[in-house]
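Good morning C.,

I know you're traveling, so I'll keep this short. The sequence:
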Amino acid sequence: MEIGGKVVLITGASSGIGAATAQAMAARGACVALLARTRAALDSVAHSITQRGGTARVYAADAADPEAVELAARRITAEMGTPDILINSAGAGRWLFTEETEPEEAFSMMAAPYFAAFFVTRAFLPAMLARGSGHIVNINSPIARIPWPGASGYAGARGALQAFTDALRADLYRTGLRVTSIVAGEVHTPYFTHNPGVLERAPKIARLLIPALEPEQVAHAILRAIERNQRQVVLPFMLQFFYALNTLAPRLVEWLATVSGHQHNRRAG
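The tokens, ready to paste straight into the viewer:
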């Protein structure tokens, strides 16, 4: 799908991958709808886009709140039309062992990314189906396919998003709509600033062998995936290697992720 002239809705657009993708889409000539909870941050992203001659509108809403999503969807449709491209980038959640995770935080982790992606997609899907075209992109984490210790709730939420992505693709077979999964390793975003201690729980082998990315690199991969109608994109290259190895030798990858990951403190005696 060509990007220029298209209406693109991006959730989680206030920072990180979402904001970088919004900038990249606008630079290609897309009309960008920015959706996230924090209006001030969205206004800053929109101002940066319009200063460069792009088109962006701000919609402050909680993507995990179905009523807020429905209201935002009606506004977006009335002001910009049905999105041609929908990018679900909203996400949250700390890396914690199961017993460390309070029930409220478990609900929060499921809310974003999974429920946010589900509610936003559901809101626009009828009109996209009626039109017979569109592209949906879900941004995910490697833990959806390769779990590691010390992040069980987060893994569950990301696994739910992956299952939704796969099932959605099956739902939309022969409808003219495309679905892409983007899986990125560590990315330099505010997520790690807002969740101190998270990186210490990443498997050591991953931190040693898989280089961290900038949000702009992921944004470029998203644009290319849409233009090429790619089913799944995994980046960087070394993460692709581990994904391939996981297909061939899943027990080996599970062992590597587990033994090099964060461990419970063992009790003496």
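Safe travels,
E.
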